[in-house]
Amino acid sequence: MKQSEILVVMYHHVHGPQVPHLAGLHGVQAEDFRRQLITLRKHYTPISYNELRDALDRGAQLPDRCVLITFDDGTIDHYRTAFPILVEEGYSGLFFIISDAAERGALTQVHLRHLLDRHLGRGKLKPLFMERYRAQGGKDEDLEVFPEDVVRKAYRWDDAETARFKYAVNFGMAPEIRNAVLHALIDEHLPKSAAELGREFYLTWDQAAEMRRAGMDIGGHSHRHEALAMLDEEALRRDLITCRDMLDRKLGPETGRAFSYPYGKAQHYSQTVVECVKELGFADGFANIQGVNHIEGRGVDHGRFHWHRIDPKDLPAYIPTG
């Protein structure tokens, strides 16, 4: 098999007039997304996840330099904004769905925080959150439990204080207290309930099925978007089984779906997580660790469960010169 180079790009939000309620969240504008696809095609051959899987499973040949476009979280802009542009530009995207979000619009803690940040304005959420967090038994020390280099690597685009707060909310706080505080702040400060916001925030199973019929690939992104390495084994298996079974039930059984690890850094998906993802029938695992991939060695042991991806902001560093 030819040892192809594979660049995997990881998108979150693609903004445009079709999704005004998502304005202000981290992402790219629709016109920039289209320009990136056009630029990438000049240097890489776009491939689908099915083509990548054929190369790994059956030895099909890939071009020397390929690009695979992926999307995490299954938000509504993927359907309304990114999907039409992909079709127009001749790309197939791989979309990773949070099954609880697609099923009932259940907002993850990440998206609860994003919505509060956008509504309240820069720097306003932390003091409000911490006041309620302390009142429910939380401690300020929960903000300081992680090394600075780990925090900065996870949130490269934020200032140090914001990065530390975000990391602590996601990984350092008791989930039941954290979630109660976030929902209370949503109820107090936003004009709609978390349930209403969630139904507007994520794509539906019917929309995912439409995208699949049009040549897009749909993968799993867990059931509730927790850091899987931090769950005990019973909770881990329950989450992943629910995600897999819901994908099968809503979109039809499929052998060899892809999986994207929530948060996706090395500390967020342990070897136990990889073993469970593989055991439950997912064929490949995609991380949030920067780098280019090569086909060589991917079919051996767990090589297929450590695909690297890059953020769109890093694209210039991966566009060949000359």
Walkthrough of the structure:
There is one protein chain. This protein has 13 helices and 10 strands. It starts with a strand and ends in a 28-residue tail after the last strand. The protein is globular, with a radius of gyration of 19 Å. Helix content is 45%, strand content 13%. The strands form 3 sheets. Strands 1, 4, 5, 6, 7 and 10 form a 6-stranded mixed β-sheet that branches. The protein has 2 domains: 5-105 and 202-318, Glycoside hydrolase/deacetylase (TIM Barrel, Alpha-Beta Barrel), CATH 3.20.20.370; 109-197, no CATH class. α1 crosses α3 and α7 (148-154) crosses α8 (160-171). The chain has helices spanning 30-43, 49-58, 76-89, 99-104, 109-120, 125-135, 148-154, 160-171, 175-189, 194-201, 205-213, 233-251, 271-279; strands at residues 5-11, 13-15, 27-29, 45-46, 65-73, 93-97, 217-220, 258-260, 284-286, 293-294. The longest helix is centred in the C-terminal third of the chain and has 19 residues, at 233-251. It is of the alpha/beta class and 322 residues long.
